[in-house]
Amino acid sequence: MKFKIATLPGDGIGPEIVDQAIKVMKAVGKKFDHEFEFNFAVTGAAAIDEVGEPYPEATHKICLESDAVLFGAIGDPKYDNDPSAKVRPEQGLLKMRKQLGLYANIRPVTTFPSLLHKSPLRKDIVEGADFVVVRELTGGIYFGGKGRSEDLKSAFDNCEYSTEEVERILKLAYDYAGKRNKRLTVVDKANVLATSRLWREVAQRMEKDYENIETDYMFVDNAAMQLIQWPKKFDVMVTENMFGDILSDEASVITGSLGLLPSASVGKETSVFEPIHGSYPQAAGKDIANPVATVLSAAMLLESLDLLEEAKAVRDVVNRSLDQDVVTEDIAGDKKAYKTSEVGDWLAANL
Ligand code: IPM
Ligand code: MG
């Protein structure tokens, strides 16, 4: 079959890691007789430099016309320390999420046995942890009204959610839990926030329609703590935009494999697949970044196209590379560190 893949490498290490995912997808195409057409487009700081804005209309059009979007990373240090910058790379990411209606960000967190020693947690705490963070992605404080007072001495960011926004993300989270271990943890701050009380009210109503799924409720501060103490107790965790941003970063490092974790953002239009780590500017251009999170994002992309056997082939070859220590310097330890491009070549050749 033929598929159109919008390819948005973005900033920092984005281009290098996306290149490796493309190699692997081409190998999939060859093995399973598919044709992937990679249509490149700019986003982030790279797009600001080129056309003055971080998610240009031309890029959006390519995304809309594609079967899936393969995304690298966004962010550039030259904007991070400049609070007065008029346009920021991150605005491109938010605009893309909004315009494609990507209301759910799905971040599966799994442990890799050969990498448990990399976890900042004790092996017995983290071994076997396997859960999914479902983050609401187009609402809440990220997209509420924001601004400064006239005298610039105060600032505000509003957090708003509608019942409909809460229902659709909870439905997706329940469906995920139904396909997994049938436990859903709704994370909020209902002891303080009105939006959280709406989330809880909606969840308590919907809970009755999902009798086969055990729902529990947790305040976000407590969830942040329990993720560290008992990561194994979670199956699917669902939460609002900003809590999800914070908890998913926390969740990603407890397995010791930040460079290995993929994500999918899904919603109304074309879905976007990207590694959860950022643009890692210090490593840009050095051919040292770990491409596996992007390659596993490509596996999630293949699943979204219903290419299940193909996705499994990608996961299998990644597991073999880890078993055989064909890995980049972040996880090589005292063994030989392979280059980004060498890992990509190995994965493509051994698929
Ligand atoms: C993420 C990132 C983004 C976010 C930034 C880059 C705007 O941290 O995808 O988690 O906050 O959503
Ligand atoms: Mg984040």
UniProtKB/TrEMBL annotation:
Signal peptide residue numbers: none
Origin superkingdom: Bacteria
Entry-linked InterPro entries: IsoCit/isopropylmalate_DH_CS (IPR019818), IsoPropMal-DH-like_dom (IPR024084), Isopropylmalate_DH (IPR004429)
Binding positions for Mg(2+) per the UniProt entry: 221, 245, 249
Location(s), subcellular: Cytoplasm
Role of this protein: Catalyzes the oxidation of 3-carboxy-2-hydroxy-4-methylpentanoate (3-isopropylmalate) to 3-carboxy-4-methyl-2-oxopentanoate. The product decarboxylates to 4-methyl-2 oxopentanoate.
Name of this protein: 3-isopropylmalate dehydrogenase
Lineage: Bacteria, Pseudomonadati, Bacteroidota, Cytophagia, Cytophagales
